[in-house]
């Protein structure tokens, strides 16, 4: 049984007040020890001398907490136990709380405030709270305690809070989406081209290269091969990244990284599979390049020139090299110019 001196919740005349009393933390972890997944309880007592009991600390358990949050939850009563939220350490001096079990918002608010005080005493920095969509009732009390949205996915929302009175160094949400465009040419100097059923090219008659978005956890090379297969049914082998482009979209506050990839066809019979593709064909490169749209679209002109330069063996792009990392057991790809790298010095 370890003793510490976090404050006890009380309701003062203005906002939240916290009479400073002694509390007992029923946990085998000392405050400065590394956090493990834990669920401790704080049981508030009032066995201090009268002078100490009458001392008031108007600072909330969460520095800068919104006093209006008291309107939706009553103060903890004397002798009431408050659960400390289960948490694990991250790699940067913060903690991660991943809520899984149902909890009413009042109980959660008390637990969050008590937990923040413990983490503050331990010198923790950032706090990450992951709430699955099933626990959306906990979003409001989390925001009312000063947390802000970081990002959302279909199944959860992530909220963050910076504890110390220093510059907030928590990383922002992912800022880029990775796209791929595939240049696939056969021995007849025909390129694989598609027409879209939806999007900006719908009904325009424009032939374009197969394109798509790399999925989370997917390598660029694998994404390009997959997109070609999904859109045309053609099996391919990834050769090189020929170039890449960065563009920006203000509406979504995101940027796109678009990788232009060279692939070798391993099959030639087109079996259109993607429902968003109207048609797919092998088209002579001269006919493809002669399209009015291709003549006006600068990026498409560069892709054609890059593909032809590569096919004629005069251009070296970036080939994937499978490597190990010191930070994960999963292998990843390093893209580099292997032709010039392997030349004798």
From TrEMBL:
<feature type="region of interest" description="Disordered">
    <location>
        <begin position="60"/>
        <end position="80"/>
    </location>
</feature>
<dbReference type="GO" id="GO:0046872">
    <property type="term" value="F:metal ion binding"/>
</dbReference>
<dbReference type="InterPro" id="IPR000086">
    <property type="entry name" value="NUDIX_hydrolase_dom"/>
</dbReference>
<dbReference type="InterPro" id="IPR040618">
    <property type="entry name" value="Pre-Nudix"/>
</dbReference>
<dbReference type="InterPro" id="IPR020084">
    <property type="entry name" value="NUDIX_hydrolase_CS"/>
</dbReference>
<feature type="domain" description="Nudix hydrolase">
    <location>
        <begin position="175"/>
        <end position="307"/>
    </location>
</feature>
<dbReference type="Pfam" id="PF00293">
    <property type="entry name" value="NUDIX"/>
</dbReference>
<keyword id="KW-0479">Metal-binding</keyword>
<feature type="compositionally biased region" description="Low complexity">
    <location>
        <begin position="63"/>
        <end position="79"/>
    </location>
</feature>
<keyword id="KW-0378">Hydrolase</keyword>
<dbReference type="InterPro" id="IPR020476">
    <property type="entry name" value="Nudix_hydrolase"/>
</dbReference>
<protein>
    <recommendedName>
        <fullName>Nudix hydrolase domain-containing protein</fullName>
    </recommendedName>
</protein>
<dbReference type="GO" id="GO:0016787">
    <property type="term" value="F:hydrolase activity"/>
</dbReference>
<comment type="similarity">
    <text>Belongs to the Nudix hydrolase family.</text>
</comment>
<dbReference type="Pfam" id="PF18290">
    <property type="entry name" value="Nudix_hydro"/>
</dbReference>
<dbReference type="InterPro" id="IPR003293">
    <property type="entry name" value="Nudix_hydrolase6-like"/>
</dbReference>
<dbReference type="InterPro" id="IPR015797">
    <property type="entry name" value="NUDIX_hydrolase-like_dom_sf"/>
</dbReference>
């Amino acid at each position: 049984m370890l003793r510490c001196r976090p404050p006890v919740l009380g309701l003062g005349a203005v906002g939240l007040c916290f009479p400073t009393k002694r509390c007992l933390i029923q946990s085998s972890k000392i405050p400065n020890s590394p956090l493990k997944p834990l669920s401790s309880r704080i049981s508030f007592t009032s066995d201090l001398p009268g002078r100490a009991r009458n001392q008031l600390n108007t600072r909330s358990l969460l520095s800068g907490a919104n006093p209006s949050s008291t309107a939706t939850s009553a103060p903890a009563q004397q002798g009431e136990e408050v659960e400390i939220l289960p948490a694990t350490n991250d790699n940067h001096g913060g903690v991660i709380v991943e809520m899984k079990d149902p909890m009413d918002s009042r109980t959660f608010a008390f637990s969050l405030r008590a937990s923040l005080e413990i983490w503050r005493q331990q010198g923790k920095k950032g706090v990450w709270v992951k709430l699955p969509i099933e626990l959306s009732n906990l979003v409001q009390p989390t925001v009312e305690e000063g947390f802000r949205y970081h990002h959302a996915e279909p199944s959860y929302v992530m909220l963050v809070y910076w504890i110390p009175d220093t510059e907030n160094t928590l990383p922002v949400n992912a800022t880029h989406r990775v796209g791929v465009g595939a240049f696939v040419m056969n021995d007849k100097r025909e390129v694989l081209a598609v027409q879209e059923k939806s999007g900006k090219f719908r009904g325009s008659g424009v032939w374009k290269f197969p394109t798509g978005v790399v999925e989370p956890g997917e390598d660029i090379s694998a994404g390009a091969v997959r997109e070609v297969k999904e859109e045309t049914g053609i099996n391919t082998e990834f050769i090189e990244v020929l170039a890449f482009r960065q563009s920006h979209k203000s509406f979504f506050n995101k940027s796109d990284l678009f990788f232009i990839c060279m692939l070798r066809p391993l099959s030639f019979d087109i079996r259109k599979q993607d429902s968003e593709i109207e048609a797919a064909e092998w088209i002579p490169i001269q006919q493809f390049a002669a399209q009015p749209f291709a003549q006006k679209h600068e990026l498409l002109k560069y892709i054609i020139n890059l593909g032809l330069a590569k096919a004629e063996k005069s251009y070296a792009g970036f080939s994937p090299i499978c490597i190990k990392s010191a930070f994960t057991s999963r292998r990843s790809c390093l893209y580099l110019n292997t032709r010039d790298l392997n030349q004798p010095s």
